[in-house]
Amino acid sequence: MDLSKWNFETGTGNNGWGNGEFQYYTDRTENASLDGDGNLVITARKESFNGSNYTSARITTQNKLEITYGRVEARIKTPFGQGLWPAFWLLGIPMQGQIWPEIGEIDVMELRGQLPAEIASSLHGPGYSAGNSISKKYQLANGRFDTEFHVFAVEWFEDKINFFVDDLLYHVIDKVDIEDRGDEWVYNDPFFLILNVAVGGGYVGPPNDFTRFPQMMTIDYVRVYSE
User: Fold this and answer.
1) Choosing from 47, 66, 73, 110, which is the catalytic residue?
2) Residue 34 within a domain
3) Is 102 considered catalytic here?
4) Structural domain containing residue 162
């Protein structure tokens, strides 16, 4: 992992990062390390750590790599199991006292571990966040996201954002459509990248007796292309 571009975020993030998640994010090699083949592996573990019953890792490019427009992609193999929540996403830079969702959020990929063939991409902004986000699901006709690598990407323009899986365009969100709804387009300022594996939370629910740990999200690469 290139520490000139990536940071670790650690802790529980104010009671589960706003989502009721269970994990404690660490900067330990037990939760994020290279696998010897050039891949970064984020590992969620079931273990007691600083008051939490699970650990994992969350890395960001905040204050090191912040972008406005272009193509962002990552080649990833996801974990599997009830209660696991891997994600690859971008978050806006807070300006003039802004808070989420006013800063904007672009979810390139998030997956419910209990649904290993389906991912979702979303935009969160003022008036359309959390359960009201502008979202679309993509399901593999054959295969699963946890058994092989797939490329997840966005192409981000001043007036639209396109979402891809393996270069297949499956979701387009236009500025005009958001503004026609009476909502605000908040995607013309810098954003930073995030990769993480959460455990639990409202989106996926808790792990169950059939969830096996440790679980890994394996990242072959992350690439950013300027517009």
Assistant:
1) 110
2) no
3) no
4) 60-221
